[in-house]
Amino acid sequence: MRFRIVTLACVAMLSAAASAQAQQEVKIGVLDPLSGPTAQIGIDAVAAIKTAAEIVNEGADLPLTLARNKGLPGLGGAKVTLVVVDHQGKPEVGQSETERLITQEKVQALIGAYFSSVTAAASQAAERAGVPFINGDSTQPALTQRGLKYFFRTTPTDRAKVQERLAAERGFRVLEKIAYKAQTTSLTAEVQRLKAANADVLMPSSYTSDTFLLLRTAKDLDYNPKLIVAQNAGFTDPTFISTMGKDAEGAITRSPYNADLESRIPLLPKINAIFKKHSNGRDLSDVPARNFTAAMTLFDAINRAGSTDPEKIRTALAATNIPPDQLIVPYRGVRFATTGQNELVRAILMQVQKGKYCTIYPFELASCQVLYPTPTWAEKAKL
User: Fold this and answer.
1) What is the pLDDT of residues 277-289, one digit of tens each?
2) Across the chain, which distance is largest between two alpha carbons, in Å?
3) pLDDT per position as a tens digit, 47-58
4) 3-state SS, residue 213
5) Are the C-beta atoms of residues 219 and 194 closer than 8 Å to each other?
6) Cβ atoms of 123 and 147 closer than 8 Å
């Protein structure tokens, strides 16, 4: 009997050793636009995810749970390996690359993909394969209204219908609702309509190239709304201020992040220092800050799952409850509703003032007052 017990114990020990050895690597697929007009956004997003992976793999002097060890302690010190692909801003490429990452690269989870259209296609492919997909930067509300089991989103969403409802409740009139094709070559007709409507506030939702085109067309046609309040995207592109120069002055945008929050979020300076090693010296901005948050949320779930089994990772993601002191964005935490949407999100409003983003809302986080009205194009020319 003793011989049989010893033999079984040895078999169990060998099995455990083999299992531990098999889990020395956790492969994560990363999908972002690394070419085309939004390439810098994708490059910065990848740098942020690499920052998160470095903290988990190498440890760091940070008050983060996963910075205390080298590797994921829940998986015996397993290291995170990233497999990065360029989806080129094309949904069909995002879908095919997702399928390749799952079937050929054997990734255990995915993160991406900035463009809501690409995220929709890629996450649907991941859903069919039963592989968790986390998103930190796509804001189309419908993404978490599809009934998907493996899709989770940490970032706030864009809700034009909510804007319209709130405007009606507060007695504001919506004078125009104008749709246009993304990455269009002309917005002259649209801006002419805006100028004719003569609304006090313009609330655009536009990607990078469209943002530049919108403002340049507005300048050419001397269209001067009293406020521009944007839904981030192109207005928080890391090249926005440098590209538009003085013409960016006064623009307000929603964002989950701004560098002037450092005094209120102690983690920011240290995370930014690590990020700069991966970003060729660039500072954190909106999209990379949100991707860092999504990546750390995913790594936390995998660690709590103690496994690379997709179903166990999905279960751990669903049970996520990260407090705000573990974040570099001003969310109230990360906790997912049954739809996969983070229900503790909170955004800020920041305005370009004197060539820099300045937080203006919520007021307890504000570092400057609102500049109102927005300077006209003629006034900007004199700055």
Assistant:
1) 999 999 998 899 9
2) 94
3) 999 999 999 999
4) helix
5) no
6) no
Nearest CA to 246 out of 121, 355, 111 is that of 355
Percent of the chain with pLDDT over 90: 78
Q: State the Cα angle at 310 between 308 and 312, rounded to 5°.
A: 80
The separation between CA 152 and the C-alpha centre of its own chain, rounded to angstroms, equals: 12
Contact criterion met (CB below 8 Å) for 240 and 234: yes
Q: Locate the DSSP E strands across 155-270.
A: 201-202, 227-230, 252-255
- Given strand 109-112, what is the order of strands in its sheet? 79-86, 25-32, 109-112, 133-135, 151-153
pLDDT in tens, 304-331: 999 999 999 999 999 999 999 999 999 9
Q: Residue 111 and residue 184: Cα distance in Å, rounded?
A: 28
Query: What angle, 0 to 180 degrees and rounded to 10, lies between the N-to-C axes of helices 267-278 and 286-305?
Result: 100
Residue 211, pLDDT above cutoff 50: yes
What type of residue sits at position 312?
K
- Residue 255 pairs in a beta bridge with 348
| Distance (Å, whole) CA 37 – CA 51 | 24
10 Å Cβ neighbour count for 149? 12
d(CA 365, CA 334): 19
Which residue do the tokens 């920052």 mark? 51
Cα–Cα distance measured from residue 45 to residue 293, given in angstroms and rounded to the nearest whole number: 11
CA–CA distance from 139 to each of 118, 168, 297, 336 (Å)? 12, 23, 17, 15
Q: How far is CA 91 from its chain centroid? A: 18
Beta bridge partners of 25: 79
Measured CA distances, 46 to 33, 39, 83, 89, 185 (Å): 10, 11, 10, 15, 29
pLDDT, tens digit, 9 for 90 and up, residues 53-88: 999 999 999 999 999 999 999 999 999 999 999 999
Residue 268's nearest CA partner among 65, 112, 51 is 51
- Beta carbons within 8 Å of 41's beta carbon, 6+ residues apart: 32, 33, 114, 208, 237, 238, 287
CB atoms within 10 A of CB 46: 24
- DSSP label at residue 320: -
Residues found in the chain: 383
State the residue for tokens 């991707």.
291
Judged against a pLDDT cut of 70, whether residue 378 lies above it is answered with yes
